[in-house]
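thought: fold this chain, then report.
action: predict
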Amino acid sequence: MTEAELVGGVEKRDLHLVSHDPAWASAYLEHRSRIMAGLGDAAIAVEHIGSTSVPGLAAKPIIDILVTVPDITAEEDYLVPLLAAGYVLRVREPGHRLVRTPARDVHVHVLEPDDPAAADYLLLRDRLRSDQGDRDLYESTKRGLLRRDWADMNAYSDAKTSVIEEIKKRARAAGGAGSTD
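observation:
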């Protein structure tokens, strides 16, 4: 596979931030249980990532979850069970799959554990949890970007890349490597 497949094509979505909701942690745990029940040993790790995993950070009300699996190409081991658990495929690209709930309020990113993107998700999460300055920078960046109209949620996500890279650079300089929940 050499290209990204966006199942269903580009989607216009209402993007907005809400104040951190402590219920997001409970929602993550419910989905973690659902994922683990479906995947069993096929899941190496299941982590709450993204803005909803950072207390005190305003976020789009979408729970992001990282699942690592031994072999991303062995879709029968993880994709089939995730679909059976009620998730729907949204993205299929080299090294990454994304499934989500039909309500679009939970995104499950599937990667291999040695994929640098997996470590980066954890690095960013942990830095935002521990550094108020970077948390404020990230939130203000998101608020500024959401003043614009986005044809696609992916374009909005791409627009955050430079500030995310800046935050991860500081995290690496501070010795952060990502940790587990």
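thought: worth noting. The chain has six helices and six strands.
final: tokens above.
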